[in-house]
Amino acid sequence: MQTSAMAQLKNCSDWPDEALVRDAVTHLTPYQPGMPVSEVKRKYGLTEVIKLASNENALGPSPVALRALAEAAGQLHMYPDGSSYDLRHGLAKLLGVHMDQVIVGNGSDELIKLIAEVFLNPGDEVISWQPGFTQYGWAAHIMGANHFSLPMRDFQYGLADLQQVLSPATRLVCLASPNNPTGTILTRSQLEQLLEMLPAQALLILDEAYGEFVDRPDYPDGLDYVKAGHRILLLRTFSKVYGLAGLRIGYGIGSPAAIDYLQRVRNPFNANSLAQAAALAALSDKEHAQASRIAARQGRTYLTGGLTEMGVKVVPGEANFLLVDTGYPAPEVFEGLLRQGIIVRPCQGFGLPTYLRISVGTPGQNEMLLEALAQVLADCRRKYDYSGKE
To answer: Domain map of the chain by residue range?
Structure first.
């Protein structure tokens, strides 16, 4: 009897066979986040590590949000408000929309998945750009939809390419502005041109996760177009300018009908009580949000100057990070920086074999990054000739 049970246990450890799993899932690749600080410390025996890999807010969260977080901690034995009523009410008031136009998610990632679950059937088409945020294609594949990835042209959105692939099967056109990892934007005239091109059965997913950092006057506010009744679902987050990435909370804005359908597939209690309390409080701290914008702008300028001086090509961006071309293999430069206790994001996975994405840090962190990178690039020059060959 015991032998039979052990045999069953062994058989269960091999379950399920791939034949039992949906085809769409067997071909998925899990998302790979940036390396955590703790892992780098363990691997390299370091006591101090700087993380400039995940576009986090260098100033941290608002003190107002931290106080709200502490106050909410005493209610952890209770389920959160499943409707996120207070947060949705606060967002609606701030944005000038109705509450039924707002949905709260466990980060924007969850909202992207909900959108796919509502709007995609097998064989439908989703269009996005490369290099870009990979979760749009991931969500499409989960639902058995076809994903078309258009090339960016000199790291800019090319609408002529979009025109060529739009079809009766197109359901979602997805883009981030500023784009991740390039930091480049879709201008107002481009957005209006895209909306004119959008087929009647298609929806634009406009991801403005980094929108608060943009200074350019030709940057469109997607909210204006939602209010005007365009077929847009707007995604925003508390992870960036509000510094609440660890709480995983984002929100979407759209027509009442679109939001109603998303609410139908949303998991109960998807936004935890601490996240809701901290996010609502963060909305009231306009001084911290403005300080975060200023720090990102100043850090971007400082890093661009220092990187350019050392011969690194910088893609002009509008977010709290920079995409840079070192001219050497990204994994090797990444590894060299890790050994000095600095984590950045190598971009070979985006099809950019010599590029890094570097988050804007504090002034001290930015200075340390430049010093460390200068040493790593000097090592690369000694190892490689100017043709890039070893």
So the answer is: 31-58+287-382, 63-284
